[in-house]
User: Fold HxlR family transcriptional regulator from Lentzea pudingi.
Amino acid sequence: MEFNVFAKACPSRPTLEHVTGRWGGLTLGVLVDGPLRFNELRRRVDGVSEKMLSQTLQALERDGLVHREAQNTNPPRVDYSLTPLGRETADRLLALIHLLEARMPEVLEAQKAYDAR
Amino acid sequence: MEFNVFAKACPSRPTLEHVTGRWGGLTLGVLVDGPLRFNELRRRVDGVSEKMLSQTLQALERDGLVHREAQNTNPPRVDYSLTPLGRETADRLLALIHLLEARMPEVLEAQKAYDAR
DNA sequence: CAGCATCCTTATCGATACTG
DNA sequence: CAGTATCGATAAGGATGCTG
Assistant:
């Protein structure tokens, strides 16, 4: 079977959107450093709301990229971690993120030039 | 200077969003094969509307990832191509896309398992 | 702590019509 | 051909209150 994200109806496209979406990428990104709990994640992914983080984690879990482990204690404790596939995905994502971060001076330069026209 | 996409106000975050956004990534992805004209792009990025493609291209051009070359002929002809930075970015993006496409069976499997609970 | 439910505001998007 | 302008539907997102 062939998958192609460039095709409108390909099932790979929703998954790509989860991974590259506003919060999906950042969530995967912070999880490469190891498992994190819900509120820990919230703090690291600066700006994400409870609701969005929750939704994002569910989508990533459903895609098999994130593993959710709930301990039935009081207070409750839930650990989120990357699956093997999640880690591979996150690695590629971080390669992109690091490139962009490193080249931001160039980007800002281009923006200034564009706006000056 | 330090850039960090995980920080809410970092200027790198909008750029990451342009690159990983719904249409930005696909647009960069098809441009790796060489320069394309507007309507050619529209056809290849299946599902994108005129408006979204236009906006996407402007954002990518402003970030210095895409080069726009307009010829003042009649009918008009405009070629879009990747800048060197755009190409490096697209390469990383494609690495991610190809990984996901290759592993979609695994993803679909995980989704089925998730939904069955 | 780790969420879900609800409401409400805002941005996104697509469709349509139009221009140089 | 390569767009821009405008509008209405829809979805994303934030704030708040509540639960086990």
About this structure: The first helix of chain A runs from residue 12 to 20. Chain A is about 60% helix and 10% strand. Chain A has a mean pLDDT of 95. Residues 37-39, 50-51, 54, 70, 73-78 of chain A lie near DNA strand C (CB under 10 Å from a C1').
